[in-house]
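Subject: for your reference before the review

Hello V.,

The reviewers asked for a structural picture of the protein, and I figured it would be easier to keep everything in one thread rather than splitting it across files. Below is the amino acid sequence we used in the manuscript, unchanged from the supplementary table.
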Amino acid sequence: MIVYVDVLLALNIYVNFFLIKATAKLTSEKIKTSRLILSSLGGSLFSLLIFLPPINPLLLTLIKLSGAFLIVLVSFGFTNFFTYLKNTFVFFAVNFIFSGITTAFIELSRTDFFIQNNMSLYADFSLFMLIVSTIVAYFAISFFRYLFDRKSVVSDRFSVIISFAEKTFSLKGIADTGNRLVDNFTGTPVIVCDCEKIGLTEDYTVPFTDKKFKGLRFLTYTTVNKSGIIPAFTPESVIIKNETTGEMKSVDAMIGIAGKQENDCEAIFNPTILT
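And here is what came back from the structure prediction:
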């Protein structure tokens, strides 16, 4: 059996690229392209362990763990210990998910060319099968993220901090999966706000005469009970603060102007805006 180094490295670069991107998706971490490429290239070098004689299991485990911690460090940097540990844990989880799916595809394809040494794997795995397994893993990870967001985020308390026309307003926010309102042209999500809480009158006329205001749009909406048109605009900035965890996130969103909301809620947004 012949193992081609270039093929081995290319496959591992592709897999590492996917694993790091999936980790970023699950943790909502931003990653620079340069860091992503560098960590994918560096991580692929550990696959060369397959050419070495069997290494002591304890030493091999330390090498693999060190490699994983290094990949996460290069990918996302170090802000604090908790975030670094969280990113590393998620990276391991994504690895396990992808490894399980890949192993299942290898078993189904019944390949005869299969080499495993020093926790490194090389198989006669077609490019098509690799892409399919990646797609399956991506949707599995996205589904887990959706379930997590739906169960955890919706129950948290939020503040929505909106800045426009040289003023800043802080509103009590609620994450509601029922708010699916987006801009028809750009797909930008819309946060529905109580007009009085952002200093606007119900006729929406006075504030929009300010030359600093970015403009008013009218969006169509449909709910279980009714449908209609809601005025919306693009603010200078929107920050959502999770009052439960203390985490703050700047989001790209429009502000929909509505009347007084139910349950003393002043701003309603879809939780997917945080991911």
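For the response letter, the relevant points are probably these. The first strand starts at residue 114 and ends at 117. Residues 5-153 form one domain.

Happy to draft the paragraph if you're swamped.

O.
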